[in-house]
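User: I'm curious whether this sequence folds into something compact or stays loose and floppy. Could you predict its structure so I can see for myself?
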Amino acid sequence: MDKGKSVVAELAASLSDVRVTPRQSPKPKSPVPSHSFYSLSKKAKPRKLVSLCLGTLGQDLEDIITDISELAAFFPPRIRLAIMSIARRRRLLNDDVLTSLAESSWEILDISGSDVTDVGLAAVANVCSNLRAVDISRCGKITTAGVSEILCHCPSLEILRCGGCPRSEFTARRCLNLLKPKLNTLEEDSWEELDTLDIGGGAGSLRWLVWPKIDDYSKETLAAECPRITINPQPSPFDLSVSKVPSEALASIPLDHSIVEDIDPKTWAVSAAPQRHVAPPSPNASPEIPIAERFRLAYVEREARLAPKRAKRERQQRRRAERDYIMNDIDARSVALAAQASRNLRKS
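Assistant: Here's the prediction. I'll summarize afterward.
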């Protein structure tokens, strides 16, 4: 393990020394359609050295995840955030990993679909007080207690993503009261005398709420009592600073997309689960019956079991039909009465 730590330390040093410079797209030499040129340039664009190192590190993340608390000290804040994003995609993100990688300079936090609980979320809220966008969707272990910690310790929070699974939907509905503004203890006689500090509680800086399956009651409640919050915003066709929706508030784009955009997706591709070992059949055991033969035998057994009941039902139906025919037809009824009378005469 000491050798592995030394390798990670050297990799972290190389990541910190690498300077990322903006890359310029090459100009086309011949006139071609814009969409084809974009696709060609996007495919031919080389990846950054930092992204290649992160891809190598992410492929073996399972081997070092248990010692991530010791290795996190070697990495700068943005690299920690990228490692956390890869861990989330590889289903490895939990309270221990999150608290080990947390950095005070983070502005976004995407823990969607992870095993993070209220304890881990509260610990991160105390460390990352500059968060402006948080995604807790599909987190079944987060309740209103964790959301309350985020709203309390992150005064700059502008974007909140929630919902996505039954438990997260329930938590989102329970958090409505946390988003409503509240008044502190006041002694003034009119609203004009109130100071901005007198209005406390609630998510004062929250502007965008991404909740795709929000119910009508919650939507109407937020629209009436929190008009400053835009629910499920859509991209604006106008490129204005007032009306432009930030990319972090669009449900179609993952919150941490910009962090892992240049990293090879194979990094977080989870391999298929190993096949379960099946013990070889015993030589003395009877051969296994094919599934089709099982269905055939079951059908034959069912027919044999129901045959007496069907014969009895047919006899009852036949007698009932004969009785109805005799009662409705005059000739048949007269013949039946004559036969009954002759039988009585013979007996006498």
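Summary: The CA atoms of residues 73 and 277 lie 41 Å apart. Strands lie at 108-110, 133-135, 159-161, 182-183, 199-200, 208-210, 230-231.
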